[in-house]
Amino acid sequence: MLDYELTPLLTDKDEGESSEGGLDPLGTEPMADVLASRLAPGVRERQERPRFLTAIAVSRSLCADLGEEAIGRDGLTEPWLVFEWYVVQGLVLMAGRRPIDLRGLPGRLKAEQALRDNVPLSPKRYLKTPATTGFHGVYGVLAEALGIKRDGLLGEQGYELLSLWSKEQGLAGFVGTGNGRGKQLREQLREALKDGLDQGAVARTKGWAGWRFFADHLAPRGPGRREAQYLREALLNDREGFRRDVLEFLTSPAGQRVWRREKSERAFHKELQKRASAELRRLLAAIDAYERFARLTQNAFDECLYEMTRRRGYVSATQLGHLEPVREASRRAEAAVRETADRLKPFGLAGAFHQRFANLGEGGAPSQWVERLMAHHRQTQQQKPPNGKLPWFESDERGYLIRPLYRRDEPAAPSDAYVHPFRTRPLWSFAADLRMFRR
Predict the structure, then answer these.
(1) Is residue 119 part of a domain?
(2) Counting C-beta atoms within 10 Å of the first and last residue's C-beta, which end of the chain has fewer, N or C?
(3) Residue 30, preceding bond cis, omega within 30 degrees?
(4) Is residue 296 pLDDT above 60, yes or no?
């Protein structure tokens, strides 16, 4: 089940469909993402601010007030999206009036532009795929993993977090049946949410008093002491993967040293292996083997792109076969494929790996291997959703001609670094926001 139904890494862009596919030219990303998810369940590379988990709990609680059938007048817009518009527009608006750290806020640029144009956020003025690129999308899988939400509703842990947050924030009545400032704010937000659904856009002016709520109580870098403690404990309570193991080492003095010094996940994982359980060592060994294979093929592909650019015309497979990264890959690929499959076998991934990459493990001359590499790239592009993407080069009997969009004016520096990220960066950011570092 490898292919592209597996969740890809998200990018910062949110553009319309295009025939160009400028990411993951060899199709190695989906399986890396599966391995990263085994290592740190729920964590995604674009995550940065754990307080969006609290924002999701607030969102699900407010949306529940409107009933399961609530929908915008357009028949498409759901309440959670309207609430997200308010959060993002409110934080950006208030950041113009007071210092607020907005790093890691999905949709920030869209909100800034909408405010400059003096128009509210709406489907046309927000992210094109908010279900994956907005904060509900980016952090939703982690909220599910931690029990903050369940099947789109507020989960048990979400209710606990919401109750603790409202008490710590001085919002009595926001949760439950009590009275207080929190109850008034909740009613104010609920009315704004209803009006937003009805109008299909943020339905409050810049002078609305409710904007302060988002800056005062949901600023991305501002979790309270007890809220932060709850989120710390939730992240460390990992029964399915090794999120706890990675976080505990990352926040230890030894882990902090290696990450600050190297900024290399390969180096970090090497040190982590020395302290890991047998099961975690097996997973880290599988990641290491997979990334060595990915790096071997990526280095060869990158060098081919540079050579095509340098020659300014069609380049034959024989000419590409003389490149040292191609020669190295043709020598080592067979053993790399075999070792990677062996390492992936305990995780049930060897079959999917073979199905996608076995062709790159076949022997032969460098010119034959590079032809298989190029054919693999074309097939990878053809399989990308929704209707396939164009390859990065044209090809005929003369060889390969790089397309202008993918020219490389500088040779790729030799590297043994991981090709793909494995969640150390977002976990480091989480640890910083939640004050988890130990001395």
Answers:
(1) yes
(2) C
(3) no
(4) yes
Task: Give all strands (DSSP E) within 144-213, no chain letters.
Answer: 149-150, 153-154
Q: If we measure between CA atoms, which residue out of 368, 369, 337 comes closest to residue 355?
A: 337
Residue type, 374: M
Q: What is the mean pLDDT of the chain?
A: 93
Question: Tokens standing for 264?
Answer: 């290399």
Domain assignment of residue 250, yes or no: no
DSSP 276-335: --HHHHHHHHHHHHHHHHHHHHHHHHHHHHHHHHHHTS-B-HHHHHTSHHHHHHHHHHHH
Same domain for 32 and 68, yes or no, is: no
Residue 212, CA distances (Å) to 182, 188, 215 in order: 13, 12, 5
Give the domain-ending residue among 203, 236, 269.
236
Average the pLDDT over 2-31 and give the result. Answer: 62
Residue 12: the pLDDT is 40
Question: Does residue 195 share a domain with residue 322?
Answer: no
Residue range 65-82: average pLDDT? 93
Calpha distance 162→253 (Å, rounded): 32
| pLDDT of amino acid 17 | 58
At residue 333's C-alpha, the angle toward residues 7 and 402, to 5°, is 70
Q: Which domain holds residue 285?
A: 3-7+20-41+278-406
Q: 178-222 pLDDT, tens per residue?
A: 788 999 999 999 999 999 999 999 999 999 999 999 999 999 988
364 has pLDDT over 50 = yes
Residue 346 maps to a domain: yes
Query: How many CB atoms are located within 10 Å of the residue 320 CB?
Result: 25
